[in-house]
């Protein structure tokens, strides 16, 4: 699947974003090594901090379906530049293998980055001696 095809899927998911407070709809499409695509949207809440970003929603959906290894993650929103994941999402993206992160906007701008470039020096399992994740 091309990067633009994955962004097209993220755009379709974005139509279901629940963003009545910020009016900033975000769509994500996460391509698993199995070939399956998992969608995510931001889901806001009247208690603002309860809301979840599209990227983390997509990861949660994929993990719930048993997928933990990903080829790519596309994120799209109506931002002047490409939509970049927030810090919390960068940390969650860093937890599992993701080949590339495709950042996009409605104007067709595209930027491809690695998770490490998005979050250098990520906090990880190595900082938790004796608590390495059991695969
Ligand atoms: N948001 C995302 O879903 N992903 C991003 O990459 C940036 C921000 C959401 C959170 C909130 O619902 C809205 O966008 C405005 O911050």
SSE topology sketch:
Blueprint: H1 3-14, E1 26-32, E2 37-41, H2 54-64, E3 70-77, H3 87-95, E4 98-105, E5 110-113, H4 115-118
Parallel strand pairs: 3-4
Antiparallel strand pairs: 1-2, 1-3, 4-5
The structure holds tetrahydrodeoxyuridine (THU).
Structure notes:
The chain is an alpha+beta fold and 135 residues long. It has a single domain (3-117), classed as Cytidine Deaminase, domain 2. 27% of the residues lie in helices and 24% in strands. The protein has helices at residues 3-14, 54-64, 87-95, 115-118; strands spanning 26-32, 37-41, 70-77, 98-105, 110-113. It has a five-stranded mixed β-sheet. The mean pLDDT is 96. It binds tetrahydrodeoxyuridine (THU). Tetrahydrodeoxyuridine is lined by residues 19, 22, 24, 26, 42, 44, 51, 53-55, 75, 83, 85-86, 89.
Total individual domains: 1
Small-molecule binders? tetrahydrodeoxyuridine
In what order do the strands lie side by side in the largest sheet?
A: 2-1-3-4-5
Reported CATH architecture? 3-Layer(aba) Sandwich
What is the CA-based Rg, rounded?
Answer: 14 Å
Order of helices and strands: HEEHEHEEH
State the oligomer: single chain
Topology-level CATH name: Cytidine Deaminase, domain 2
**CATH superfamily annotation:** Cytidine Deaminase, domain 2
Mean pLDDT: 96
Low-confidence stretches: none
Mass-distribution shape:
globular
* Proportion of beta-strand residues: 15-25%
């Amino acid at each position: 699947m091309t990067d633009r095809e994955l962004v097209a899927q993220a755009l379709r998911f974005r139509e279901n974003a629940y963003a009545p407070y910020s009016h900033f709809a975000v769509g994500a499409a996460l391509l698993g090594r199995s070939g399956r695509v998992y969608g995510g949207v931001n889901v806001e809440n009247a208690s603002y901090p309860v809301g979840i970003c599209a990227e983390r929603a997509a990861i949660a959906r994929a993990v719930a379906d048993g997928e933990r290894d990903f080829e790519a993650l596309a994120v799209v929103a109506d931002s002047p530049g490409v939509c970049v994941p927030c810090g919390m999402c960068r940390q969650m993206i860093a937890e599992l293998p993701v080949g590339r992160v495709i950042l996009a906007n409605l104007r067709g701008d595209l930027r491809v980055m690695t998770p490490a470039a998005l979050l250098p020096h990520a906090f990880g399992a190595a900082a938790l001696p004796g608590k390495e994740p059991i695969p």
